Description:
By secondary structure, this protein is mainly alpha-helical.
Amino acid sequence: MTRRTRRLFLLYLGLLVVLAGLGAANQQLYRQQVALMTQKAVLQVTLSDLRRASASITGALAVREWAHQRGMIAVPNAREVRDVAPVPPPILPVPERGLEVHTVWR
């Protein structure tokens, strides 16, 4: 084996070790990517479930049901309903004066 052949062989072995290291790092990144994609799919399912639950509380049908329970009527039925005289507002107790704030604008 000549000196040049020995150097090329050592260079080849060094590059082979570097390539093996890059391959191992690549496989680790691939496993991490697969785990993140799985986590993303789980989070998307969770998000859709939460959106469905939120729509049952704040959606149009929920708001309509809430309004009907409190005596509100739909606009198309408004002509069939008679107005009632308003009730005077309730008299609330006056809160105690413990703190007064004065603002001076300059």
